[in-house]
Amino acid sequence: xxxxxxxxxxxxxxxxxxxxxxxxxxxxxxxxxxxxxxxxxxxxxxxxxxxxxxxxxxxxxxxxxxxxxxxxxxxxxxxxxxxxxxxxxxxxxxxxxxxxxxxxxxxxxxxxxxxxxxxxxxxxxxxxxxxxxxxxxxxxxxxxxxxxxxxxxxxxxxxxxxxxxxxxxxxxxxxxxxxxxxxxxxxxxxxxxxxxxxxxxxxxxxxxxxxxxxxxxxxxxxxxxxxxxxxxxxxxxxxxxxxxxxxxxxxxxxxxxxxxxxxxxxxxxxxxxxxxxxxxxxxxxxxxxxxxxxxxxxxxxxxxxxxxxxxxxxxxxxxxxxxxxxxxxxxxxxxxxxxxxxxxxxxxxxxxxxxxxxxxxxxxxxxxxxxxxxxxxxxxxxxx
Length: 384
Fold this sequence. Notes:
Helices cover 52% and strands 0% of the residues. It has helices at 19-22, 33-36, 42-45, 72-80, 83-86, 97-103, 105-111, 120-124, 144-149, 155-160, 164-170, 180-184, 206-214, 217-224, 229-233, 263-294, 300-319, 325-383. Among the domains are: 1-139, no CATH class; 276-383. It is mainly alpha-helical.
């Protein structure tokens, strides 16, 4: 199955090729990355493009014609697996794609005789191949759901397009957001250093993964064959997280495993309550400081305190994954202290505003009395 293809050499440039005379529909190849590097039609199809008659397709000249789907990986790998060869054209490009492909579900099924699986051309195209970094490439991150979705038309694609990952990728144009290949791998079965797709989350969410591995959940999940992050966050339809996911209220993911009254749910309820209390105090501090700001009061220290409280709130949400209530409470206490201090500073600023207002009113009254006294004095002088 995996018979090696003969090594390809630089062919007749497309500008000198006779192929397009009979195959004008392939003119899009002019935009192909291979054409840009000087490879013409015969680089893949064989033959002699310098001949303007049927002799150009002579088998004696290595003419292959249409490449069978089952031969595509080895044909592409003839060049892309040769480090010496590729160094002349794309020295940074990895040369283990074919070896990785053979480990993938696609590669294994192809080796078993299934030809309706994805090969190189299904993801990268045929005669209009562009670098993956090119936004026009079918393998560009933002195009991966569409490209993979041509075969994988089930609920996975629809769920992914409802996820926060797709929102970041499509709306915010954050190319670092996960696309299909980020979790499932591009050429191989799974991304490098990941034993299973369910474990891929930790490659991006490192701190959350470390906390989870130290938590009481980790050994329980492992013993029960549960899939780590996926159990709470799903896999394709990963929605934005929120505090409502933690606790014993309707919609909380903790209820998927825990029953009312058990120790795990008590910890979740405690964390949920503390997060709610901190949010309320932070909101109160924000209202007071913002009100003071509208009157032009100096509240830079209070604003810094709110920022610190917000940071502590974010860190507390992260610590939920460790299920260590003691460490969690320390961070909550730190955040609440910062929020309370900011609220006190905001109220102090508003009190100072009131003091200034009263002082201003007294000053205005004194000035008016002085003016009135002067006026009366002048009138008395004039009458004399």
